[in-house]
Amino acid sequence: METLMEEEEYNWREVKLPSLIPVVPPPELERETGERRRGRDIVIAIDHGPNSKHAFDWAVTHICRLADTIHLVHAVSSLRNEIVYEATQALMEKLAIEAFKVAMVKTVARIVEGDAGKVICKEAERLKPAAVIMGTRGRSLIKSVLQGSVGEHCFHHCKTAPIIIVPGKEAGEESVI
Length: 177
Hints:
Layout: E1 12-15, H1 34-38, E2 41-45, H2 50-62, E3 69-76, H3 82-103, E4 106-113, H4 116-127, E5 131-135, H5 141-147, H6 150-157, E6 162-165
Parallel strand pairs: 2-3, 2-5, 3-4, 5-6
Antiparallel strand pairs: 1-4
Helix pairs in contact: 2-3, 4-6
């Protein structure tokens, strides 16, 4: 197992998204705290696969509420690849618009260079979100242990609550445990 250096630097690149600023009405109840009114940060790890989209849809439907901010994080092996950057930017723009339409939440996107599990945990440590949400391929327990997975790494190393969404029939494949 590879040791993760705590002060290790990593490269990232912001993604410019269309400006969709939700209008948040003032809270009607006096008992709501400033924390609730301000909204939460929620990290969603994405890639170009159907299980990632399923996890995004689940998060927007079940977790997000008005005034929250979604932070989309996509890990790549190299930031110099413009084709990957442009494809990821298009995906993130589409997801940002969908998140605004469904839950009226603000979206921030970042492409991060490095090992997916490590950089997702680094982003979670930097942002201190309410949750880190990601999809999984739905591999069996034995395959996950032998081959490793991003979800397993984040489950054991993230300092924030990871929520791992297992794909269902609507995501394209049934999960086998």
